[in-house]
Amino acid sequence: MALPFLKSGTKKRELIVAIDLGSRTTKAVYLQRKGETLNLLRYAILDAPIYDKSLSPDLLSEHLKSVMQALDAKTKHITLAVGVADSLLRTTELPPMPIPEMRLMLKYNSKNYLQQDLPDHVFDAYMVPPKQINPDPKAQPKYKVWVGGAKNRVINDILTATRAATVIPDEVTLSIVGPVNAFEFAEPETFRTGVAALVDVGFKNSTINIISEGELMLSRVVGIGGDKLTTGLAEAMSVTYAEAEGIKIGMPTEVESALLPLISPLGRELRASIDFFEHQQDKQVGQVYLSGGAANSQFMTQALQSELMVNCKSWNPTSFLRSTLPPQQASELDQIAPQLAVCIGTAAISF
Questions:
Q1: How far apart are CA 351 and CA 184, in angstroms?
Q2: Nearest residue to 29 via CA among 59, 74, 71
Q3: DSSP letter at 346?
Q4: What pLDDT is recorded for position 55?
Q5: What is the pLDDT of residue 51?
Q6: Beta-sheet pairing, 195-201 with 287-292
Q7: Which residues sit opposite 19 in a β-bridge?
Q8: Structural domains present in the chain
Q9: Burial 226-244 (b: 16+ CB within 10 A, else e)
Q10: Which of 44-53, 130-139, 232-241 shows the lowest mean pLDDT across its residues?
Q11: Mean per-residue pLDDT for 279-285?
Q12: What is the full DSSP assignment across 240-308?
């Protein structure tokens, strides 16, 4: 599911660099295409220079240089994912028309189609293929369309930063659809035939995507992430933020009574999303898949499962890739893989 605000061409490159500009950490992967095989050459997880506001073009430029150096990339071409704080994803219905015409229509009449006036935005659209022919040939057909948007300023800042960093942005897209794209490759059978919720737990926000038989049906952003859990734990235990982060990761079962009330709001938001989908579609969500920094927390998984009464587990978005990583990165891959869901899915639009 590609929603690139910027797309410089359709050429499939041998070397692929995809970068997820997260609010607290930047995740990146460096892949190589060899025939039908995709090799994972290297990954990088770097602290963002600042995480309380958007990066300036100068800071972003220096950060991109650091990412490319960490990857030891032998290409200048990159694909970037814009975070949920700087982008949006909505669904609407539109008559069939070429995507460039859709983009213009949305640009000049966003309020009519997206129920919000969004001036100075750039849009892209993905038309969901219809599953059946329109029964009334005289009626004007309308198709479900997913619309991605971002402010022109954000895209222009990225272009300025990439020029200064001497890298070439092949595509700029949405981070929120990254887990969906990665899941299609990593868990193809469940993607095609199952009904599942994908939850990516970020620093400031978490995303909830529900897929059904190969189609994205619901997508939400909730303002609950790892930062809120750590801050709440620090306040409850009267310790510093850094100490709370260490406790949260290292010994969560020992602070169960303090952590559970902090995780419950995410569980309630996820339950509300699942209930809405199940009521609208008359289908049952059979599995919740967790990714992001908290996905390896067995305590988090069990707490959400108890809240939802639905099986929850983490998943590995790199499972379909052939690892040719350096030894140290190879030994750590299983542990950090869930954090790479967005950048693997961002790379997937170049496969």
A1: 12
A2: 71
A3: H
A4: 79
A5: 63
A6: parallel
A7: 28, 80
A8: 6-88+152-181+320-348 (3.30.420.40), 188-314 (3.30.420.40)
A9: bbbbbebbbeeeeeeeeeb
A10: 130-139
A11: 95
A12: -HHHHHHHHHH-GGGGHHHHHHHHHHHHHHHHHHHHHHHHHH-----EEEEEETTTT-HHHHHHHHHHH
Q: Which of 160, 152, 153 is nearest to 62 (CA)?
A: 160
DSSP state string for 166-205: T-EEEEEEESTTHHHHHHHHHSHHHHHH-EEEEEEE-SS-
b/e per residue, 33-56, with b = 16+ CB within 10 A?
eeeeebebbbbbbbebeeeeebbe
- Quote helix, strand, coil % in the chain, to nearest 5: 40, 30, 30
259 - beta bridge partners?
Answer: none
Record the pTM.
Answer: 0.92
Could you give the maximum distance between any two Cα atoms of the chain, in Å?
Answer: 68
Q: Is 137 a residue whose pLDDT tops 90?
A: no
Tell me how far apart the alpha carbons of residues 85 and 287 are, in angstroms, rounded to a whole number: 27
Average confidence (pLDDT) over 94-122: 90
CA distance 27 to 114: 31
- Average pLDDT over the chain reads 90
Question: Is 17 in contact with 73 (CB distance < 8 Å)?
Answer: yes
Strand partners, 323: 40
Q: What is the pLDDT of residue 304?
A: 92
pLDDT at 350: 83
Q: Which residue has the tokens 């969560």?
A: 252
